[in-house]
Amino acid sequence: MATVHKRAGSGGYPGERRRRWPRTVLLLALLTGGALLVWFWQSLTARALLDASYGARVACSCRYFGGRDFAGCEREIAEETSFVFVSADDETKSVSASVPLLSSQRATYREGAGCMLEKWED
Q1: 97 and 84 Cβ atoms separated by less than 8 Å
Q2: Could you please report the per-residue DSSP string of the chain?
Q3: 43, 64, 53: which is closest to 111 by C-alpha?
Q4: Which class for 50: exposed (0-12), middle (13-18), buried (19 or more C-beta within 10 A)?
Q5: What pTM does this model have?
Q6: Which string of DSSP letters, residue by residue, matches 10-27?
Q7: Within 10 A of 107 (CB to CB), how many other CB atoms are there?
Q8: Which of 2, 80, 114, 116 shows the smallest number of beta carbons within 10 Å?
């Protein structure tokens, strides 16, 4: 009867050796996907902040500096930016704009200075 000997360090018989490359490829794919997700999320939130700021500033200028009806200002913002919702507060002469779940911004009209955005938080 022939005896089969294990090789030292092989982890078993030659047919039973575990392959490491599928696990390595999967790990690299997960790390690459995670890095892309972080990059995409950062650029998405930065774009949302810019769109909300633009919407607040333009709608504020349209309403309080230009004296136009807010419904017209709101339609103008909707045509230029996607997913930006604006609302006006005539008492404080300010406009809030938001991209849901991502960012929001407020612009307030001040006599002589025009519409000023709130400071951005880093």
Answers
A1: yes
A2: -----PPTTSSSSGGGPPP-HHHHHHHHHHHHHHHHHHHHHHHHHHHHHHHHHHHHHHHHIIIIIS---HHHHHHHHHHHSSS-EEEEETTTTEEEEEETTTEEEEEEEETTTEEEEPPPP-
A3: 64
A4: middle
A5: 0.69
A6: SSSSGGGPPP-HHHHHHH
A7: 27
A8: 2
pLDDT values of the chain reduced to their tens digit, one per residue, 122 residues: 566 555 555 555 555 556 677 888 888 899 998 888 888 888 888 999 999 999 999 999 999 998 999 999 888 888 888 789 999 999 999 999 999 999 999 999 999 888 999 887 66
Contact call for residues 12 and 63 (beta carbons, < 8 A): no
- Residues whose CB is less than 8 angstroms from the CB of residue 114 and which lie 6 or more positions away in sequence, other chains included: 61, 65
The one-letter amino acid code at 70 reads: F
Of 59, 64, 61, the C-alpha closest to 96 is 59
